[in-house]
Model the fold of this input.
Amino acid sequence: MAEKKQKVIPDEYIPEVASRVVTIEGSDYLVENDAMYTFYERSMGEFSPFFLAIRDEKKILGCKCTKCGIVRVPPMLTHCPDCDFAPTQPVEVGQVGRMNTTPPITYFATSLFLHIAPYGRGRVILEGADTAMSVNLYTTTGILVPGLIKKGTEVKVIFKGERVGEITDIFCVPTSELTPDQITKKGLEESELNWATPKEPVFPKASEEDIAIYKQSLKEMQALAAEMSKSKRARKAIEGWKRDIAVKTKAGEFAMCINDGDFSIEERRLGSPDFVMACEDPKTLLDGLSYKGAITDSVIMKKLWISKNMEFNTIFKLDRLARFLAREKKEAAKQ
Amino acid sequence: MAKKVGIVGAAVTPFKGRWYEKTYYELAQMATREAVKDAAISIKDVDAAFYSIYNDIFERTCIPEHPLHGIIGMQHKPGIRISCGGATGAYTISAAHAYLAGERFKIVLVLGVEKATDCFDFLSMSATPEVIKAIAWSGDSFFEQKLGWSASDSYAEVVLGYMDEHPGDLKPEVTAQISSQLSKQARTNPYAQRQFDQVTPEEVMNSRYIVYPFKELEICVYSEGAAALILAEEETAKAMAKNSGKPIVWITGLGEANEHSFAGKNQKDMSRIMSGHLASHRAYDMAGIEDPVKAIQVVELHDAFVHELEITLAEFGLVPLGRADSLIEEGIMLPGGRLLVSPSGGLIYCGHAVGASNIMSAWSARKELIERNLRTAMVHGTGSTVAQYMACQILEHE
Ligand SMILES: [Zn+2]
Done:
């Protein structure tokens, strides 16, 4: 869920006043940190009743055309464009609906949404409405995976506990994850749901063979890491990035360290890692680093567990690292 | 009777992931210099400028075209900027055409430029999240921006809507082959951002998801660059062609359509790109094309996503709706097939410098018509949320 921020622009997004020089073919170019910003005290105008009803009454309002009877949610307009601008009237609609189409899931988000990815956004047609409203979609079972919510899937509007009068005060979950009472209850709140808490997976005891695979995979990953640290192109993928990651597998634990272009894999336990990765088979990670299938996909398909969702961003960088090295090798092979 | 309008000059700058060496002022002038040279005229002969610039946030200024007007030698002449989301370039060509056909001007410059990757996210220390954020300010600001609306997620909605209705189409093996084919086509385009980035279908399949169902190697890359066209009305065009020795490529059909921003009854049908269907068929009508399958030989697409490329060609009537995979399965866009699709490498491999992209497409389509001695090409631009905007042009080589 999106965390509440105190500032309109959170401090961590704001760079220092600084500049640097980039040299290309012997010429210097000046590159400056900069921003273009404008603050607003913005009126919600004719949409105010809709947002206030969500905030204060946990109700969803639409507007109904007095001539053709079409009910639009959210209430986009006061007069119907299909009926030569006949006036519309506010109506309350249901809090259960069906997906208009299969919703997309965003894995690689804009800088404002990196911390909530992966997330689903889709359009729901609520009971009593004719048009579709955009909502965020979640599952109480963990990460949203393709196929869980599809066209026609029945979903329920859930209200956040702290509401400020924004569209993000609500989201939807599949009704198949709710009890009959929860489905019929109006104004169901987030805290009333049974959210699965992300638990670090526990692996079975390793066999001799597992240990042999682990040792071999580790060796191969270390060789790749050395190549990556030497590759100018691969270094770019993790430029300016620092992470110490504890990686736990069935047959052993190791440390993966990213340090501004340097990439290393060492057989040691980290005291205070930035986050934890857990995958039963170390080959999952080896394949990803060898550019045979994306590590991101392993997270999505639950073959790899990460302790912090927002570290998806680091996973992207690892995929990029693998791709950049693979491309450099491919180009070198061509020459 | 409206005047006939033709393309008599064209140029592009290299499309690059980052142009540290130049600002958008210089990129705009570069493309202009080359375009007038291609048309063998002086900039003094040009009556008006039509600017195709998509996003003020990219250029980090509002009215981004004003500093360009003097720099490109257009002082005291009219200048108009068009901005229609991703379809900015194609709509700018439409606007310039209308002024020439209406006999307001004889020669005009269509100038597209964009500098996208000055945007930078200091938290993830990379440009892309900030570039897509700059675009994401174009989502509906009351109901959708705060949900994480993005260009990719809004086009994915349309693609998934299409896949709901046609579950057997847009197969991952096919989208991967299309991307691979486009990468091969970019190999001969010296201006392409990814000229040497040829990928195999396996590599496409193995690339990570960006927004389900799009994988990284099925999505356009953001570019910086400029592109320019010189357009002229019939008599002037003929005189110019005699002088330059370059054949005229006539713009014989144009069509545009914008859909509703929101889905549901009487609004956007998410399983279709109706804007594409309507704009293309309006362009065919104007050009007198009865059977586009027979007539169209080259399509330079606004192919920001491979899946969108497929649906668009179906909406254009060039492959059946629900059978867009025939592009590969029946070899339609493969070497020797009946349709040349995005010979420049398209937006995925030549690159996507938004305001310049559709102008680059027209530059490429004209080049292909002349060099391969073909007759009819099509250019298009799509944009805004849920593939809402569309503009198409039919180009014909005498
Ligand atoms: Zn009505």
Notes: Residues 276 and 351 of chain B are 21 Å apart (CA to CA).
